[in-house]
Design brief:
Blueprint lengths: L2 H6 L10 H10 L13 E7 L2 E8 L7 H13 L5 E10 L10 E2 L10 E3 L50 E8 L7 H14 L4 E5 L7 H4 L8 E3 L2 E3 L1 E3 L2 E5 L15 H13 L6 E7 L6 H9 L4 E6 L3 H16 L4 E6 L4 E2 L6 E2 L6 H9 L3 E4 L4 H8 L4 H4 L4 H14 L12
Helix pairs in contact: 4-12, 6-7, 8-9
Length: 425
């Protein structure tokens, strides 16, 4: 069985992934400044949804071309439905001009880029026995010698249950929505402050790489974090440890024009290369949708649960449903639904009106058997205080009590962790 036919067995049935076109890209690509074909260097392939992971052999003189190889493939595969390419490199050590048959595998050499990472190979490593479709082990004497075009399929991408816990963070809570404009970031900062008022040590990570708004809402826009031992030192905002890509890009006008792999790499760097203090909860403000960042979080960050923010509007509910379905598929518990902009009370006459409809949060909670954590009003004070960098819970406006009630329901769902007696926050 060739690696192309092996590739078919791991493809997602999603219509947006074009299997034959992906095969053509991998078969037809020629390495830069070389006559060698990529298909002769592939050792492992795995596809999970719209994420393709590939492992290739390279040699020292090709090290300068790794970024170009990744970028060329990412551009070509994007047209085939692949939204994220993870390229792993096994760099073999040999002198220029030696035959490939005499190459010895070398030690790990990291390429220094999120997109092209180096893994280890052993020259004595043997492939596992070949198993046919009926599950019978083929006889060794009936099989040809090892063929670089017939690699073993890489094991599936890591699942949420396999992700190791962060040494200083007890719980990670995602605040997510299926679409933008439903008040997700405002909900994140207010729930974080509310959980802090309940006595928890809280941090906030802004994972909305393309539209970071947490710095503005917490009043520290324009500040940049210090770097200590090649790690970011999170900024302080009202006693919480906070970090956002917005703290690293400078002014508000700088766009983050990155492809998916670079954006997810930046997120993982913010999570892993930050000197987070001991936290009971890290709130992560998610970008809208169900794309690269959501999948990366599910595979690489240990998540306690997700909070879904929606409005009662049907369009918002449809997108929120997709978010819940995604979290269910990646084994992330959904802690509940927050219905934002639920009702509006006129500041002049006191007339109450459901501008975006009614009952949407209830329907969503009932459909998926999850709690409706609470309803939040469409209130000008919420917007004004967030824009001023002083969220509702901090200033105690009319919505503060609602945020506190929701935070209490979230806190009640957190695993009980016994804190050290000598711990000082």
């Amino acid at each position: 069985m060739s690696w192309l036919s092996s590739l078919k067995s791991v493809f997602s049935p999603a219509q947006e992934v074009k299997e034959e076109e992906i095969q053509n890209v991998l078969q037809g690509y020629i390495l830069p400044n070389s006559t060698h074909a990529l298909k002769d260097r592939i050792t492992q392939i795995n596809v999970e949804g719209q994420v393709l992971q590939i492992t290739i052999n390279t040699y020292p003189e090709e090290a300068d071309h790794l970024q170009k190889i990744h970028d060329d493939l990412a551009d070509a595969l994007e047209k085939c439905g692949i939204q994220e390419l993870n390229m792993h490199v096994i760099q073999q050590k040999h002198k220029q001009g030696e035959s490939c048959a005499n190459h010895d595998h070398g030690k790990d050499q990291h390429c220094g880029d999120n997109k092209a990472q180096t893994s280890t190979a052993s020259s004595a490593q043997k492939l596992p026995p070949v198993v046919d479709a009926a599950g019978q082990t083929a006889q060794a004497e009936s099989k040809p010698t090892e063929d670089p075009n017939n690699p073993p399929i890489q094991k599936p991408a890591p699942q949420q249950r396999d992700v190791p816990k962060h040494p200083r963070i007890q719980n990670v809570i995602l605040v997510s929505s299926g679409k933008g404009g439903v008040g997700k970031s405002t909900t994140t900062v207010n729930l974080a402050l509310a959980l802090q008022k309940l006595g928890l040590k809280v941090g906030v990570l802004d994972a909305d790489i393309y539209g970071p708004s947490i710095p503005t809402m917490l009043g520290n826009a324009g500040r940049t974090p210090m770097i200590e031992a090649e790690n970011f030192v999170p900024l302080d905002a009202y006693g919480m440890a906070v970090l956002s890509i917005g703290h690293l890009t400078g002014d508000h006008n700088t766009p983050v024009a990155w492809r998916g792999p670079k954006a997810t790499g930046a997120l993982m760097q913010l999570f892993n290369q930050t000197l987070w203090p001991d936290l009971d909860v890290l709130m992560i403000d998610m970008p809208p949708g169900t794309g690269d960042i959501q999948l990366t979080l599910a595979q690489r960050i240990p998540v306690t649960g997700a909070v879904i923010v929606t409005t009662p509007q049907n369009v918002a509910l449809l997108d929120a449903t997709k978010g819940i379905e995604l979290f269910n598929k990646v084994q992330i518990p959904v802690m509940g639904v927050v219905e934002n902009m639920s009702t509006h009370i006129c500041s002049n006459c006191g007339y109450e009106e459901q501008i975006f409809g009614t009952g949407g949060g209830d329907k969503l909670a009932e459909q998926y058997h999850i709690p409706l954590l609470g309803r939040l009003p469409l209130n000008v004070q919420i917007r004004e205080n967030a824009d001023a960098g002083k969220p509702s819970v901090l200033v105690g406006d009319d919505a503060a009590e609602s945020y506190m009630a929701i935070a209490q329901k979230i806190a009640d769902q957190l695993p009980k962790v016994e804190k050290p007696q000598n711990r000082i926050f």
